[in-house]
Amino acid sequence: MTPQSEPIRLAVIDNDSGFVKVLTKRTEAAGWQHRQLASAVPAEELVAMKLNALVIDLAMLGEDRWTYLERVCGMLPDLGVIVCSGQSTVAQRVRALRLGADDWVSKPCHPEEVMARIEAVARRRRRNRLNAEVGPLVAGELEIRTDQFQAFVSGASLDLTRREFELLQLLAEAKGQVLERETIYQRVWGYAMAHGDRSVDVFVRKLRQKLQKRSPSWSYIHTHFGVGYRFDPEHEVPDADLAPVEGVEREPAPAPEPAAERVTSP
Hints:
- This protein has helices at residues 17-29, 43-49, 65-75, 90-99, 111-133, 162-173, 181-189, 199-214; strands spanning 9-13, 33-37, 53-56, 80-85, 103-106, 137-139, 142-145, 150-153, 156-157, 178-180, 218-224, 228-235.
- By secondary structure, it is of the alpha/beta class.
- It has two domains: 3-124, Rossmann fold (3-Layer(aba) Sandwich), CATH 3.40.50.2300; 135-235, Winged helix-like DNA-binding domain superfamily/Winged helix DNA-binding domain (Arc Repressor Mutant, subunit A, Orthogonal Bundle).
- The protein has a five-stranded parallel β-sheet with strand order 2-1-3-4-5, with helices on both faces. Strands 6-7-8-9 form a four-stranded antiparallel β-sheet, with helices on one face.
- Helix 6 (162-173) packs across helix 7 (181-189) and helix 6 (162-173) crosses helix 8 (199-214).
- The longest helix is centred in the middle third of the chain and has 23 residues, at 111-133.
């Protein structure tokens, strides 16, 4: 069985019986392996389950929810973790993502959306795993390491966030191709881009700033106005007339030839 055809192995930690029942029916129909967990089982047990993804409602975990989430994400770095919980604040969602969760879905939500987000996370994880097996991707002065979710220039890390790295990886893997903004958003964020959303442009700008800081003599990401972006490393060589090569003297320009003598009649 190829990696693309492997069924998703999912566990759900949620006591919302109605939501779990519908989600179970949908995942079973899709051929997924599904397990419902009535409580927050130890992270060591999750390791033994060999899961691809975990859907968890933090609201049912009480005061220990953040500690548990951090432990699970720390012990299972290859596990896709999707928080599916009720009403929340921006601070809570940000905290979950920074502790290692891959996504947050607010209830009430449609099971198809939850499944789509799980598939997106699993797809990114699978792609990163396959890329790690073939080694780093080298482009210009960049070395992109999927096993570390980082890019390096001369051994110095660009200090990319997870989202910035996924964006850079996507563009680099499609080297020379123009990717539309909608395509980039769908593949990096995992769902359709809302009208007027400028997230792709914002993250490309952040990437360019970090690339310029570490690798100023190279241009990596090119804009196709009204369409999207193309990754194609180009070495920016200074104009020879403006920046003479050190230690090399230019030959003096040849003197102009004397004007021909005018011949006059005697």
